[in-house]
């Protein structure tokens, strides 16, 4: 009986000895899995933080440029519609980018799930609005073109009085090699380029119309 007990004990010990390498392998595998998950989490967190910081700085830069342009524009502002001014668009765009990116930065730093959800949902809403805007612009293409033409003609009237619009119009005419909204005749609405106006600019167009 003693020999039988010794054999059973030795068999049990042998079985436990056989199981030990398997359990060690499982422990090593779980440890490596934890390291991989931790590394992936740290990498994603760093990328999200880096991405948010870049757009946060860009948003602040755009906002600063918009504020500076609007302050300068107030000295020469003659256009009736404020939303015609690129400075207003830059200010609005800068505010949105600055706030949304700041939420992303804080969410990534503090591991705040609520802030990250706000950041994600806000980006999703912005993407949907951009898609809807593009679809509506294509669906109502004629109305969009008419609106842009009227806006350009209204800006041409005050071309030399609003430096902000003047720089924008000059850039568009040089870039796309165009003249006015529909053609050079649009410049007749300007008091300096009208044929009845005195001076060398009568019946003429700005120099940016002549760029080829």
Automatic annotation (TrEMBL):
Gene Ontology terms for molecular function: enzyme binding
GO biological process, alphabetically ordered: protein maturation
Subcellular location: Cell membrane; Late endosome membrane; Membrane
SUPFAM superfamilies: Tetraspanin
Function noted in UniProt: Part of TspanC8 subgroup, composed of 6 members that interact with the transmembrane metalloprotease ADAM10. This interaction is required for ADAM10 exit from the endoplasmic reticulum and for enzymatic maturation and trafficking to the cell surface as well as substrate specificity. Different TspanC8/ADAM10 complexes have distinct substrates. Promotes ADAM10-mediated cleavage of CDH2. Negatively regulates ligand-induced Notch activity probably by regulating ADAM10 activity.
Similarity-based family: Belongs to the tetraspanin (TM4SF) family.
Predominant subcellular localization, coarse grouping: membrane
Disulfide bonds: 179-195
Bilayer-crossing regions: 48-71, 83-106, 118-140
UniProt keyword Ribosomal protein present: no
Record's bilayer topology term: Multi-pass membrane protein
Keyword Acyltransferase on entry: no
Keyword annotations: Cell membrane, Disulfide bond, Endosome, Glycoprotein, Membrane, Transmembrane, Transmembrane helix
Organism, scientific name: Nothobranchius rachovii
Protein name according to UniProt: Tetraspanin
UniProt-listed Pfam families: Tetraspanin
UniProt xrefs under PANTHER family: TETRASPANIN (PTHR19282), TETRASPANIN-15 (PTHR19282:SF159)
Entry GO CC: late endosome membrane; plasma membrane
Subunit structure: Interacts with ADAM10; the interaction influences ADAM10 substrate specificity, endocytosis and turnover.
Gene3D superfamilies: Tetraspanin
């Amino acid at each position: 009986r003693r020999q039988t007990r010794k054999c059973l004990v030795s068999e049990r010990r042998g079985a436990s000895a056989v199981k030990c390498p398997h359990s060690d392998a499982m422990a090593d595998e779980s440890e490596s899995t934890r390291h991989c998950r931790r590394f992936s989490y740290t990498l994603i967190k760093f990328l999200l933080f880096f991405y948010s910081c870049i757009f946060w700085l860009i948003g602040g830069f755009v906002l600063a440029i918009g504020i500076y342009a609007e302050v300068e524009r107030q000295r020469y502002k003659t256009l009736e519609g404020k939303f015609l001014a690129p400075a207003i668009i830059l200010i609005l765009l800068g505010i949105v980018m600055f706030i949304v990116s700041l939420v992303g930065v804080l969410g990534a730093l503090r591991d705040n799930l609520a802030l990250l959800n706000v950041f994600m949902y806000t980006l999703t809403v912005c993407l949907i609005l951009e898609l809807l805007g593009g679809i509506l612009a294509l669906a109502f293409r004629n109305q969009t073109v008419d609106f842009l033409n009227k806006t350009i003609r209204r800006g041409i009237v005050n071309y030399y009085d609003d430096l902000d619009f003047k720089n924008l119009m000059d850039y568009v005419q040089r870039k796309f090699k165009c003249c006015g909204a529909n053609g050079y005749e649009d410049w007749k609405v300007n008091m300096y380029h009208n044929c009845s106006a005195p001076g060398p600019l009568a019946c003429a167009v700005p120099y940016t119309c002549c760029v080829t």
